[in-house]
Amino acid sequence: MDGDHDSTVSVVIPVKDDAPLLARCLRALAEQTRAPHEIIVVDNNSQDDSARVARDAGATVVPCAAPGIPAASATGYDAASSDYVLRLDADCLPEPTWIATFAGALDARRDVAVVTGGAHFVDGPKPLRRIAAAIYLGMYVATTSPALGHSPVFGSNLGFRRSAWLAVRDEVHLHAGIHDDLDLAYHFGERHRIRRVRTPVMGMSMRPLSSVGGFARRTAWAFRTVLLHWPADFPSVRWIRLALRRVLHRLGVPTPRAARTRQGRA
User: Fold this and answer.
1) Of 205, 206, 197, 204, whose CA–CA distance to 99 is shortest?
2) CA-to-CA distance for 134 and 65, rounded, in angstroms?
3) pTM for the whole thing?
4) Is the pLDDT of residue 201 over 90?
5) Closest Cα partner for 57 from 34, 79, 36, 82?
6) What value does the mean pLDDT take over residues 44-73?
7) Most exposed: 51, 89, 117, 204, by fewest CB within 10 Å?
């Protein structure tokens, strides 16, 4: 593995009762062309061997008692000590160049704070894998971009500067039942540039589409997250605010931070 880099990378994986897929994910991370400084597995009250699997693979296990992906992910981001934080899920299968590509994108563009990418399914009916993933992620981008006023982020294939996380950590919502990717995009997009990286594509499980209930639950999370940000982030209000902020930034005029607190802590 290539370790001759000034910037360091932490990989964060939230997990709950997903030991076999976590083992597969960790094996893929061991084959990366650029090694991470650390791998942090956040154990969200697992009842299986997820924590043991993580430790056996050399990962650092951080417990998170609060239920839900938002709290577990934030716990991992808080624990990360590197310049860059890369996030994927236990059911993901990253290509060997994943870390190198995302870290390289952040190395090359100092004006970009967040990078994200697409995915394809690695299970389910073979003829449907890529087209189903394209439809699934395409719908996510098409429906959330107008609400955000910029591109969303995809939590299963995500990277960002640790400094960007520290700038928004007290504003994100941590309670269960919201769409953590979308919530994070609201806060990152307020002051940080998000760039979509086309390669490498992340492999992931088709579980989000495996049942009508699962897909409906994720849709409900997204609607709840959008409404949670209204009226301050009502689309027209947010678009104008972001446009004015960009103009002021180009003119070198500092803009005040939004007066928000981490409501999920309550």
Assistant:
1) 197
2) 34
3) 0.92
4) no
5) 36
6) 97
7) 51
